Amino acid sequence: MKTPEPVQSASAIIDARIRELGDWRGDMLARVREIIRAADPEIVEEWKWVKPTSPGTPVFSHGGIVCTGETYKNVVKMTFAKGAALKDPSGLFNSSLDGNVRRAIDIHEGDKVDEAALKDLIRAAVALNLKGKNQTKPKPKSKPKPRRPSSR
Known about the structure:
Blueprint: H1 10-21, H2 24-39, E1 44-48, E2 57-61, E3 65-71, E4 76-80, E5 103-107, H3 115-134
Antiparallel strand pairs: 1-2, 2-3, 3-4, 4-5
């Protein structure tokens, strides 16, 4: 009987991905991850959407998805799941601006990250997620049961 291989934690997979990149994208993903953790120490790291054509994506969650940390050839992309509902006074969002739900930040080689503004955005995304979790959903009104005709 074959013994199952131990499953790596999402954090360990993210660590490996950062090492595997080995360039500015790995450094930037590590930096962004550090900022996310500083903004919300309760953030949960996940690794999702693994496909034969994609190794998967780092996902940062607290009460739902806060953002992803995708890496592409020329950009590190932070996609905020509910970004369209967040105020962005510092103008960090610079991608996926036409969508109804998501917003993204594309970070290119040499870009400086406004750490304070990014922390504020992360905290706002967490607050939005938790607000949705804490609201009690109204119970649907029950329909009156149809009366049966009496059998007299």
